[in-house]
Amino acid sequence: VLKVRKATEDMGRLLNCEEGDPMFDLFKITYNGGGIPQSISISILKGNDTYYVITSEEEDQVNHSGLSWKL
């Protein structure tokens, strides 16, 4: 799950950004082969430093900031 929100005062202090700056919350759940949840992770990322590429095509290529990679 990807959620967009504004930084709180505490987030600004911890992540060295301003209150109200754009943030991403990324929630991930991993499962074992039997479908049983094994871990949950929550990441809070500064929006100005984060890029997501969403594609349904194999062999897509992404070029950004001098870097290039195939998906």
Tally of helical runs:
1
Mean pLDDT: 86
Number of DSSP strand runs: 5
Shape: flat
- Taken as a percent bin, the fraction of beta residues is over 45%
Please estimate the helix content.
Answer: under 10%
Structural class: mainly beta
What is the first-to-last residue Cα distance? 20 Å
The largest β sheet comes out as: 3 strands, antiparallel
- What is the rounded Rg? 16 Å
**N to C succession of SSEs:** EHEEEE
Please give the order of strands in the largest beta sheet: 1-2-3
- Which parts are unreliable, with pLDDT below 50 for 5 consecutive residues or more? none
In short:
The chain is mostly beta strands and 71 residues long.
List the helices and strands and how they pair.
Elements lengths: L1 E5 L2 H7 L6 E10 L5 E10 L14 E4 L2 E4 L1
Antiparallel strand pairs: 1-2, 2-3, 4-5
Which key features would you list for this structure?
71 residues; mainly beta; 3-stranded antiparallel β-sheet; two-stranded antiparallel ribbon; flat
Describe this structure in words.
The chain has 71 residues and is mainly beta. Helices cover 10% and strands 46% of the residues. It contains one helix and five strands. It has a three-stranded antiparallel β-sheet, with no helix packed on it. Strand 2 and strand 3 form a beta hairpin. The longest helix is centred in the N-terminal third of the chain and has 7 residues. The chain starts with a strand and ends with a strand.
